[in-house]
Amino acid sequence: MGSFQQTFFNIDIIVAIYPMLLLGLKETLLLSVIIVPLGIGVGLLLACARALGIGWLSLLITIYVDFFRSFASLVLLILIYYGLPFFGVEIGTRSSVILALTLNVSSYFAEVFRAGIDSLPKGQVEAGRSTGLGFIQVQRYIVIPQAVRNMAPDLITNILETIKVTSIASVVTLPELLRMARIAQGNTYSPTPLIAAALIYLIILLPIVKLLNRLEHRES
Predict the structure, then answer these.
(1) What is the dihedral angle through the alpha carbons of 162, 168, 173, 178, rounded to the nearest 10 degrees?
(2) Which residues span the domain enclosing 158?
(3) How many CA atoms lie within 13 A of 157 on its CB side?
(4) Is pLDDT above 70 for 1?
(5) What SUPFAM superfamilies does the annotation carry (predicted)?
């Protein structure tokens, strides 16, 4: 048992690499607090725009959603990070990660919002319009509040997945949590840094999972 602990959960190594993991955690949290609101905001705009029922606009949004949902986020990140400089566009490592993940996750959020909006009775929208409310007012005061309540579990699930997918930033050497753990692993020749990073992810995400379970039980 002592050998197992020394290999996979070496306290001395954890103490030594703590500053590196803390630096990586800060980058992961920074990415999350930027990408999650952007993904939700773009997804909501796309869903509301599609609700207008304009044929060509709905077609463009459908193409956007289907394309980025079908595109692997890792491949998209590599294309943006390594491809844009060939066209003279330099946006930096963090911006490349934010752009790639926002494009990807916003397509999923758009589908979640669309499903939530479609779940509402059409009569509510018509009733709102009959009282003199404009399209934006109907969406803001009638449609979106109810849609968010109906799709809360799916919305939280997507937020959870968005936070986890920020780990692919390590591929382009952005010093997020996984990247720093892998560097620490290389320095210490021990799997302990990766185990420590996994535990940090667990501590961050477990409360979100608990909230998701509570909402799902409430729905049932």
Answers:
(1) 80
(2) 2-219
(3) 12
(4) no
(5) MetI-like
